[in-house]
Amino acid sequence: MSNQLHLQQFKDQLAESISSNVFVKISLGNYQGNEKELKNIYVRKVKIKRTDMLSFTYRYKTRDIIKNLSIDEGINLIGHFTSNDFKVATLFTTEKEVILEHGKKQLVSVREQMLSKVLKPNLSHNKEKKRLIQPVGKPYLVELKLTDSEGNVFKNAQDKYRQINQYIEILNSLIKEFPAGSIKQVVDMGSGKGYLTFALYDYLYQVLAEQVKVTGVEYKEDLVGLCNAIAKQSGFKQLDFVQGTIENYDVSNIDLLIALHACDTATDDAIFKGIKAAAKLIVVAPCCHKQIRREMERNKIKNEMSVLTKYGIFMERQAEMVTDGIRALILEYFGYKTKVFEFISDAHTPKNVLVVGIKPINQESNKIRETKKLEIKQRIAETKAYFGIGYHHLERLLEQEQLV
């Protein structure tokens, strides 16, 4: 049989395997073309917007590139590759593999061998990441309009679902720094519609089997009523929502305090509540850093930063960093180990900064603590003076309670 017939035979088997739904994947190797860093190409069938397509993964030395083509375009491209640049191609079906090879003297051969184990095609476009909060069997996700009754995440809720899981992953890693059973009282300041509050309770109580009491604090009374109704329907007996502001909410015992996207000084109110209650873990995602920006704009200190702060956008970013930097220092003053990091969120808030305070299990001696507190207090004063900041809201709250 001539080379051309062997190549056509391989292409026909590929087309037949796809049409009869036994195609699993195809691997193209031994590349002899002109792209120096291209090593292999892997092809599988995917369903995109309810249409069957072939997904090509071009495997380069340092990166992968994915291209999706129609079935006919994909088959023709594979035919071109096997005739020219790739000297080995392996077609995997559910029951066998078909190997095409350019051998010695450029002779093409095709051979088949049966598989010892039946393979199954995977038509998913994206490999589903293992989520800590699985969507199936979660009544609260249905009530919050994130999934249908069978646990399928709605298309317009994909970003929110990923965001919830990302938050839970972060909180889980932080909670694990403490012995099991340490987190008993959790407060979510500014809980909104309760997406994270429900998910956190679900994870702590149902997955980690922690005996926790979780409270969401929310100003809007209609959201409080909605969330309490969903909690009752879900059988979440140790989860409740209360109406009020972060500033006015009074609690004496908190192990974990969360405040996500609390605007401007509301973030300071939340951190203040956490420090006052000696929370083991404080996690805030600040936004709208207006208070410090107003201070900087009013005083307009002349220094090395003036070349940047004269521009509005740079002033805004500088005010954000200074605000959160002082917050981190204040947490350190009260004995917290601090972390500040950026993470990717949903489309509405593309990037967020998390400020985290972790109370160490083993406290330092009083002498070391007092020395560090004096150093931190001096650094805060120097930072305020450098940027022309008359006061920081969190610092003022603590001074009013005579805590600093």
Word description of this protein:
With 404 residues, this protein is an alpha/beta fold. The protein has two domains: 3-114; 139-400, 3-Layer(aba) Sandwich (Rossmann fold), CATH 3.40.50.150. Helix content is 39%, strand content 26%. The strands form two sheets. Strands 4-3-2-1-5-6-7 form a seven-stranded antiparallel β-sheet, covered by helices on one side. The chain has a seven-stranded mixed β-sheet with strand order 10-9-8-11-12-14-13, sandwiched between helices. Residues 346-350 have low confidence and may be disordered.
Quick take:
The chain is α/β, with parallel strands linked by helices and 404 residues long.
Describe the protein's topology:
Layout: H1 3-19, E1 23-31, E2 38-48, E3 51-60, E4 64-70, H2 71-83, E5 86-93, E6 96-102, E7 108-114, H3 139-143, H4 158-175, E8 185-189, H5 195-207, E9 213-218, H6 221-233, E10 239-243, E11 256-263, H7 265-276, E12 281-287, H8 290-299, H9 306-309, H10 312-333, E13 337-344, E14 351-358, H11 366-387, H12 393-400
Parallel strand pairs: 8-9, 8-11, 9-10, 11-12
Antiparallel strand pairs: 1-2, 1-5, 2-3, 3-4, 5-6, 6-7, 12-14, 13-14
Helix pairs in contact: 1-2, 4-5, 7-12, 8-10, 10-11
In the sheet with the most strands, the strands line up as 4-3-2-1-5-6-7
pLDDT averaged over residues: 90
Helix content: 25-40%
Number of strands: 14
Counted by DSSP, the helix tally is 12
Distance between the termini: 89 Å
How many domains comprise the coordinates? 2
Look at the helices and sheets and give the structural class.
alpha/beta
CATH C-level label of the largest domain: Alpha Beta
Could you say which overall geometry the principal axes of the C-alpha atoms support?
elongated
Which quaternary structure do these chains form?
single chain
The CATH level-2 architecture of the largest domain is identified as 3-Layer(aba) Sandwich
Give the biggest beta sheet. 7 strands, antiparallel
